[in-house]
Amino acid sequence: MDLKTMNKLSRIIAIIAIVVAFYNFYLSWTKDESSPLLFWTVIVLVLLSAIIHEFIKRNS
Prior knowledge:
With 60 residues, this protein is mostly helical.
């Protein structure tokens, strides 16, 4: 996989993490229930995106 594709993948993962975080916030705000699974999904996606971004920085 080349660096340009990995950069796009990193950004897509970050956008998905932001959407999931806002959805979890919406659930906790409107229905007073926050999903721990969604919280940990956001954490994993953000870490994955950061690792990919760091890998791209080191190889460019």
